[in-house]
Amino acid sequence: MAVKRDYYDILGIHKNAEEAEIKKAYRKLVKKYHPDTNAGDAQAEQQFKEVTEAYTILSDPEKRKLYDQFGHAAFDGSGAGAGAGGRTGGAAGTGGTYQEYHFEGGNMDDIFGDIFGDLFRGGKADDAEYQRFGGGFGRSRYRRKGQDVRAEVSVSFDEAVFGCDKIISFQNMERADGSVQSLQVHIPAGIESGKSIRLRGKGMPGVNGGEGGDLLLKVTVGEKYGFERKGQDVYTTASIPFTTAVFGGEVRVRTLYGEVLCKIREGTQSGTKIRLRGKGIVSMKDPDVHGDQYVTVQIEVPKHLTGEAEQKLKEYEEACKSGSRGRKKNSAA
């Protein structure tokens, strides 16, 4: 019986290799030995299978932990499962070993799933096909979901506000040449930076007919000049003439949905905030719910005055001073 090679040696990495190193080594070797580029080469096909098997174990933290502790015995039924309520012994007439389990009550599928689910994934098995030999159970083939794949996508401020469809490109790990694949993705209205979109079944392929993993797209939202987002609310500023602040009036304010007229009250101070209800960003949970827009008023100070305007402003200043002195005298009296 051929001795199985060490998974770390197959991938050409050391035992303390990080996840990124494992993935890099796998990508390099899977391209080298893929059957599509080595048609008819039985040795390359075998090496491809070994590389895939090694990556499947070492890329999963739980499986890797078991492998580091028990070696291949953790997965071939030759010893790691003995502590799960069974024993190992020589198979009659073969000179080999077999694994025999004894159960007392309970549903057979549940018990068997618990043992092997805990062994392989740290949880209960989703599905399994069992082959029975003599009085015990032999090797099993498990349908397992493929690994999730993570990627990033950038969208503009407006694309995040209103939603859009984007074409993204990513490296397809299923192809021997690692070629780039394009995929259309819908960006939901109202999404924020840092949120992820889950595309089910677009990750790594499953094992033994299991469903594919998911593609998780982390969204980065760009900025928009003059707008600041905080949750569903947006914040902007509006500059108004000095006279409008004094006498009151109306000013045009830019929103995400076009310009609106805002009423400015007489005597409005710089820094005053105006709330525009429903002019914020739509909720991803409820399309009928929107945030608000908060407009901070900034009063424009004229840089250049005509002689007449300057004279009038000085008269205004004197009038303010006189009024102030008059109020003080009346107060003292």
Automatic annotation (TrEMBL):
**Ranges where the J domain occurs:** 6-71
Q: Which SMART domains match?
A: DnaJ (SM00271)
A single GO molecular-function term is: zinc ion binding
| Keyword set includes Metal-binding | yes
Q: Which PROSITE patterns match?
A: DNAJ_2
Q: Name one GO cellular component term.
A: cytoplasm
The record's listing under SUPFAM superfamilies reads:
Chaperone J-domain, HSP40/DnaJ peptide-binding domain
- Species source reads [Clostridium] hylemonae DSM 15053
Keyword line: Chaperone, DNA replication, Metal-binding, Repeat, Zinc, Zinc-finger
**Keyword presence, Cytoplasm:** no
Q: Set out the biological process GO terms recorded for this chain's protein.
A: DNA replication; protein refolding
State what protein this is by name. Answer: Chaperone protein DnaJ
What PANTHER family does UniProt report for this protein, alphabetically?
A: DNAJ HOMOLOG 1, MITOCHONDRIAL-RELATED (PTHR43096)
Q: Which domain of life is it from?
A: Bacteria
